[in-house]
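User:
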Amino acid sequence: MTEVTPLYDTYMRAPLRFERGEGVWLTTEDGNRYLDFAAGVAVNSLGHAHPHLVAALKEQAEKIWHLSNLYEIPGQEKLATRLTAHTFADKVFFTNSGAEALECAIKTARRYQFSKGRPERFHIITFEGAFHGRTLATIAAGGQAKYLEGFGPKAPGFVQVPFGDLTAVKDAITDETAAILIEPIQGEGGIRLASKEFMQALRQLCDEFGLLLICDEVQCGIGRTGKLFAHEWSGITPDIMAVAKGIGGGFPLGACLATAEAASGMVAGTHGSTYGGNPLAMAVGNAVLDVVLADGFLEHVRDVALIFRQGLASLADRYPDVIEEIRGDGLMLGLKAVVPAADLLKAIRAEKMLAVPAGENVIRLLPPLVTSADEAREGLARLERAAEHLTRIEQRASA
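Assistant: Predicted structure:
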């Protein structure tokens, strides 16, 4: 008999109940420890119960939780100043989630064109396999049928083209195009990496046609690739960027960053958020940056990522009937599976390790950025046992 739950039936939840966490480890109610290489889908950037984040949240919780944006919030000024100092951006709007950050980015791009006397320019070119959120606008931006079905007409103004196809991008540009929106690394889409050359070509097209380049760095930003933001590897800068997940280290926080020019249409009254930029979120966001921007931190991410990537490549060589390809960059990596990804994920969980499924039969590995070299090797050992288990099953099946 199926258990009746008061919750919406929108999640296929694993039967695991975690009680506490520390660093890269989670402990269930019955005392089992799991190596967490899912990190809340790239959210717990500094692992669990990081002492600096805990202290910042506790300190702020004893002062003010919420004010609304009717008043000045010093934490917003501080965090926005730090973000603009370390990025291309001049302006920041704080949100509670990645989808809200994308909504703000979309509105910023459209409003920019409107403010320049080009209201017909509201179409945004996006890419097949993209995932930008679950709101009506962001599922339209992603364009995936499985997320659009049953929610009425698709919100207009989004044109999808094949990922990495520059000719298709050029062909899609019209007098109604406002912007191009891309994830430098597609997360939900299967850890697909946009090449340096493709990102540079998009920047050039935007400059040529008066379009805005929007980067969705909700999953790949805040140090996950070994630079503060993934687009930096291409040597280009966007006009607008959406971030979330890792910037809050586990606390709900997102942000839309933009140049002063791109944000010039967003004047008083054009956008808002009741909770966005609340003092609790700002305290935690600033604490995350304290750690991520510290000397040597991003170098540590790159060093551990190299060890992990090399180990995964070795696994793929030794278990070709389980793993077809290693994808991604930094600590945002994917195993393109030969076996059904669900089987690989089950085998990984059996080794008391957490990972995340993605499109194209891929399993995502998103370790906290504080993962040590030894913890990366422990993860590799568990993955090897999972691959060995599946290989033995395949061998018995073919015997």
